[in-house]
Amino acid sequence: MSMKPNVSQAKYQSYLSGRQPTKPWFANAVRAFLTGGTVCLIGQGVQETFVHLFHFSEKTAGNPTVAVMIFIATLLTGFGVYDVFGQWAGAGSAVPVTGFANSITSAALEHKSEGYVMGVGTNMFRVAGPVIVFGVVAAFFVGLVRYLVVS
Amino acid sequence: MSGIGIFIAAFVVGGLICVVGQLLMDLTKMTPGHVMTVLVVAGAVLDGLGLYDPLIKFAGAGATIPITSFGNALVHGAMAETSQYGLLGLITGIFEVTSAGISAAILFGFLASLVFRPRG
């Protein structure tokens, strides 16, 4: 099959182009900025708490901070709050690490009825899986290049 | 940065990274999954160029909370082990730094599926 659109498909595309709702990309960007910024602001608050109250260093506070943010996101997903927030926030809810946790928890919950092994276990990483796969592959090659350049 | 400045930097930088993600979703046909993947790879590449650590120093959680920091942390783990074990360290070290995040997400996600019911 040819992937080139034929005449009627081309006509249909031009028919559609004037009629599709344009995405309010600017308003969406403003929302993403405000919500994503706020999530990071909360993260900074958690991190400062670890540094000042529990005497972590700036560097070692990163891991427990991420774990706390993931815990909060998991709870909010369980209570159905994160998805409501996500509809308004767009990328502001998806891009922070809380969105990573949300994608895992919501996939786990969604497929719970199919059982814990084939439902929860199989589907947990539906969205998060590609992130890990491409992250690891990219990190390997970036690390390889840096290793070869340095040595 | 310290004091109130780091909070402002965290808000602005974290917000801007999310704006990049939102624009990718709205102006291209990428899904949130694609955007997260692209940002993770971008984080890994930025760290390879030595640019991500200065950003963390400047913006704190504004750089460590967005998913780009996952790519950065993967590279950091791999690089740290290569200094000890050579090339093999790339494999053994990759999850060194990110293990907390991944373990926490798996554990909490599974526990949530025991406790909560799906909604909607």
The number of strands of chain A is: 0
In total, the number of strands of chain B is 0
Largest sheet of chain A: none
Class of secondary structure makeup of chain A: mainly alpha
Report the mean per-residue pLDDT of chain B as an integer.
Answer: 92
Strand content of chain B: under 5%
Radius of gyration of chain A: 21 Å
Structural class of chain B, please?
Answer: mainly alpha
Report the average pLDDT across residues of chain A. Answer: 90
Strand proportion of chain A, as a percent range, falls in under 5%
Task: Write up this protein.
- The complex is a heterodimer of chains A (151) and B (120).
- Chain A is mainly alpha-helical and 151 residues long.
- Chain A has a domain at 30-125.
- Chain A contains 8 helices and no strands.
- Chain A has helices spanning 7-17, 25-53, 62-78, 81-89, 91-94, 97-110, 116-123, 128-150.
- Chain A is extended, with a radius of gyration of 21 Å.
- Chain A starts with 6 loop residues before the first helix and ends with a helix.
- The mean pLDDT of chain B is 92.
- In chain B, helix 1 packs across helix 2 and helix 2 (32-48) crosses helix 5.
- Helix content of chain B is 78%, strand content 0%.
- Chain B has one domain (4-115).
- Chain B has 120 residues and is an all-alpha fold.
